[in-house]
């Protein structure tokens, strides 16, 4: 009877242990994800160059790269002369540009003038922390 219980426990341990290994290697955690918070549209140029360099360096391990725009100059995202070249470059690099909804509200930005390529989140700072909890590497400029 002892051998039967011991054998059963051993088999269950092996099965659950193997299941946990498979769950840990689902492939997603091998990707390196990045998020940058910026307050100024001109900073998009060096951020996008950095994203391109990291994509080349990381190769297949490159995951997502997100740029969150917050602060008093957020209204510049509605100026096509200032933002369109960065939107195109971000799209080509696979980078997502995100606007902070809190900043949009605080500085009374007309949301209908935000380019459709720019995603909006309710609170950019909170969103950054949530991404960090998911393992994103983060920097604020």
From TrEMBL:
This is DsrE family protein. Residues 1-23 form the signal peptide. Keywords: Signal. The keyword Signal applies.
């Amino acid at each position: 009877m002892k051998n039967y219980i011991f054998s059963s426990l051993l088999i269950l341990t092996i099965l659950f242990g193997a299941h946990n290994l498979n769950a840990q290697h689902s492939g997603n955690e091998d990707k390196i994800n990045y998020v940058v918070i910026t307050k100024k549209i001109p900073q998009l140029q060096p951020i996008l160059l950095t994203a391109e360099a990291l994509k080349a360096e990381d190769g297949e391990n490159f995951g997502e790269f997100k740029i969150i725009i917050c602060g008093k100059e957020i209204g510049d995202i509605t100026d096509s002369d200032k933002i369109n070249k960065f939107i195109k470059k971000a799209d080509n690099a696979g980078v997502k540009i995100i606007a902070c909804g809190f900043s949009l509200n605080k500085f009374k930005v007309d949301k209908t003038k935000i380019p459709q390529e720019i995603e909006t989140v309710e609170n950019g700072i909170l969103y950054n922390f949530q991404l960090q909890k998911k393992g994103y590497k983060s920097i604020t400029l």
